[in-house]
C-alpha cells in the first residue's frame, strides 16, 4: 500500500500538471484508468483482508474538535503487514527521525539522512506497482526512463524543501514527503499526515 500510495500520488500529480499545461492531450481518461488499475493489481504488499481491525466509536468533524472515542482506533494490526517482500514500510520507518515536525524549524539533511532517502526510493522504485507508473510516465515524457535521473527527479519532487513557516521566518521546513507521509505541526495543529501507518505507530 505504501508504494502504491507513493506511486499513485506521483502519477496523479504529474498527470494533472501536464494536463493543466496541455501536455497530455493524446492520453485519455481510459489510459489513466488502465494504469491505475494495473497499479492496484501489482500492489502485492497491500494489507490483506482482515489484517487491520478498526474501532470507529464516536465520530468527529471539522466543526467538532472533541474526541468522543475513549478507546484506540486500531484494535489489531497484523505485524506481517509491515514485513512485506519489498521492505518499503521498514525503509519508510527508518526515515522518520530525519525530519523536524515543526514547520518553523529548517530541515537539514545530513549525509546519513540522504542515504536513507535514497534507500527508501530504491525500495519503492523496485516494486511492480512503481514500475507500472514509471513505464507510463516515462512513455509520456513526464519522468525519465533512466534510473538515476528518475530518482533525482523524485528527490526533487518529494524531498525538495519549501516554506510553510507560520512565524514569518521563511524557514525551509517542509517537503511534500514530510507533509503527506509524516505530518507537520503548525503550532498545535497537525497538518498533512495522510498515511494510516503513521497514525498506528505514533
Describe the structure.
With about 200 residues, the protein is mainly alpha-helical. The protein has helices at about 1-20, 30-40, 90-95, 110-125, 130-140, 145-160, 175-180, 195-200; strands at about 50-55, 75, 185, 190. It has a two-stranded antiparallel ribbon with strand order 1-2. β3 (about 185) and β4 (about 190) form a beta hairpin. α1 (about 1-20) packs parallel to α5 (about 130-140), α2 (about 30-40) packs antiparallel against α5 and α4 (about 110-125) packs across α6. The longest helix has 19 residues, at about 1-20. The chain starts with a helix and ends with a helix.
Strand order of the largest sheet: 1-2
Tell me the Rg in angstroms.
18 Å
Please count the helical segments: 8
User: What percentage of amino acids are in beta strands?
Assistant: 5-15%
Overall pLDDT level: 86
Structural class: mainly alpha
Please bin the fraction of helical residues.
Answer: 40-55%
Low-confidence stretches: none
Please tell me what the overall shape is.
globular
How many beta-strand elements?
4
List the secondary-structure elements in sequence, H or E: HHEEHHHHHEEH
The termini sit apart by 19 Å
Major β-sheet annotation: 2 strands, antiparallel
Short summary:
By secondary structure, this protein is mostly helical.
SSE diagram, text form:
Elements: H1 2-20, H2 29-42, E1 52-54, E2 74-77, H3 88-95, H4 111-125, H5 128-139, H6 147-159, H7 176-182, E3 184-186, E4 189-191, H8 196-201
Antiparallel strand pairs: 1-2, 3-4
Features of the shown structure:
202 residues; two-stranded antiparallel ribbon; mainly alpha; 8 helices
Amino acid at each position: 500500500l505504501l508504494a502504491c500510495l507513493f506511486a499513485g500520488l506521483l502519477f496523479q500529480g504529474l498527470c494533472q500538471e501536464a494536463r493543466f499545461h496541455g501536455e497530455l492531450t493524446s492520453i485519455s481518461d481510459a489510459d489513466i484508468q488502465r494504469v491505475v488499475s494495473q497499479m492496484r493489481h501489482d500492489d502485492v504488499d497491500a494489507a490483506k483482508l482482515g489484517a487491520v481491525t478498526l474501532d470507529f466509536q464516536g465520530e468527529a468533524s471539522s466543526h467538532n474538535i472533541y474526541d468522543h472515542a475513549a478507546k484506540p482506533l486500531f484494535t489489531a494490526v497484523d505485524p506481517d503487514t509491515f514485513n512485506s517482500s519489498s521492505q518499503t514500510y521498514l525503509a519508510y520507518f527508518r526515515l522518520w527521525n530525519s525530519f523536524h515536525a515543526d514547520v518553523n524549524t529548517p530541515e537539514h539533511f545530513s549525509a546519513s539522512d540522504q542515504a536513507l532517502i535514497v534507500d527508501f526510493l530504491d525500495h519503492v522504485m523496485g516494486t511492480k506497482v512503481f514500475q507500472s507508473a514509471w513505464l507510463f510516465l516515462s512513455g509520456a515524457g513526464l519522468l525519465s526512463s533512466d534510473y538515476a535521473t528518475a530518482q533525482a527527479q523524485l528527490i526533487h519532487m518529494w524531498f525538495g524543501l519549501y516554506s510553510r513557516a507560520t512565524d514569518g521566518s521563511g524557514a525551509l521546513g517542509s517537503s511534500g514527503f514530510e507533509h503527506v507521509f509524516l505530518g507537520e505541526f503548525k503550532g498545535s495543529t497537525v497538518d498533512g499526515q495522510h498515511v494510516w501507518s503513521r497514525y498506528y505507530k505514533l
